[in-house]
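[Primary structure, fold]
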Amino acid sequence: MRILAWTALALLVLAAAGAALFVVFYRQAKVSTVGDVEFVNELRIPAIDRGARGDDGVVRYDLEVQAGETQFLADGPATATWGVNGSFLGPTLRLRRGDTVEMNVANELPEATTLHWHGMHLPAAMDGGPHQMVEAGGSWRPTWIVDQPAATLWYHPHPHGETAEHVQRGVAGMIIVEDPEAEAELPAEYGVDDVPVIIQDRSFDGDNQFATDDKFLSNVGILGDEVLVNGTHSPYFEATTERVRLRLLNGSNARFYDLGFDDGRTFALIGTDGGLLAEPVELDRIPLSPGERAEIVVDVAPGDRAVLRSFGGLGGGSFFNDRFNGHDDRFDVLELRAAGELEPSPELPDTLAEIERLDPRSAATVREFRLSGTNINGRDMDMRRIDEVVTVDTTEIWEVRNADGQAHNFHVHDVQFQIIDVAGDAPPPEAAGWKDTVAIRAGDTVRLIMRFADYSDPDVPYMFHCHILRHEDRGMMGQFVVVEPGDVAGSPPDDHDN
């Protein structure tokens, strides 16, 4: 009996010590930079690249993916980074609807990579997914006709199993699609009242290099403890107009943001992933999961200072996952500083764009996708397997269920979709436009409707996947081909080692 009593006491002591240690880790897991960012660096505005139009009418862009060093912090050595046409990130590509474009991609990295045109409607062979690898020292020249509404898109690497690492090193950039036939009266002077805001979290080690270790007890991959905007540490933007359009891009590997201003001011949401909304929506918060974009217009008064802040993540999972996967974290992102005198800005129009609503009754097929762990429908990604076969020029409904106790999101290549409902409820007004990426809370199901137009190829697939890049790399991705009526899937290219 005495031995049993001592054993029970020892177990109680160990349990108490374990609980105390867990409490310590739980408290330390929460990150906040609120009130601590000094905003001492003027926001870097990426160069704008409109391409060069040749005699044949094709607009060509020269993009060199390269390694370099970037000085993010005031003190200490520079950070080893990758970028496009520079050491970190890349130029903002400006494309016009109706143009034929060609991307001349040269890979000067020491290893193979890709460039994926996230949100772009284009042939599968031009998509830049894991089947379009560009070897070290090699080149790739995809070409397509730009045929989609004005929107904020982006580009980033997509090598299977290595996307998180390549994006973390710095290869990414914004794409702005212009539609000259349907331009609303909106702030449009790039870098002045139309500002790219690429938000990425990073941590630095003692040598000012990017820390790449996963956070303790986190299962989403790399989470940083501070934020860069357009590669600028501690950034501010000097506003010189009464209204400023911010093109927000969550370019982080895994972090979800809930963005608003520190003083609670409202702003007008005018666009999401796939383009402008039908009309402006007044908000004081806009959530963004990895890969999502939002265009907002904020009013400022002379002498104003307002801080763009992330008030947390998506949440809705277990208290454990919310804390250790970063959803409780808060960040000061960017300070807006209004000049003493401001140029006048036009009022926002009441109507922004016409959005054709897709009719669920027209759907030819309903597909179901179950997200769990790091797989979809119980299967890990296989580069040699076609998971879904879609017929060109048909409309489908995809029902995507998050069967996990943590947040996921879901991105579909080539198409823009509309959200029918979220957990049975109609989407809020800010989610009523065209989307290519959607956040999904633990346990929720979202129903998406999309049309697969124009392009078919039985052999070269598009991807669908969680855009938490560690999840994608570990297998939470699948492949679909679009075929002509009556055709069947072929064989994917055997051109990737993973």
In short: The domain at 41-178 is CATH 2.60.40.420 (Immunoglobulin-like). Residues 17-28 have pLDDT under 50 and may be disordered. The CA atoms of residues 290 and 467 lie 6 Å apart.
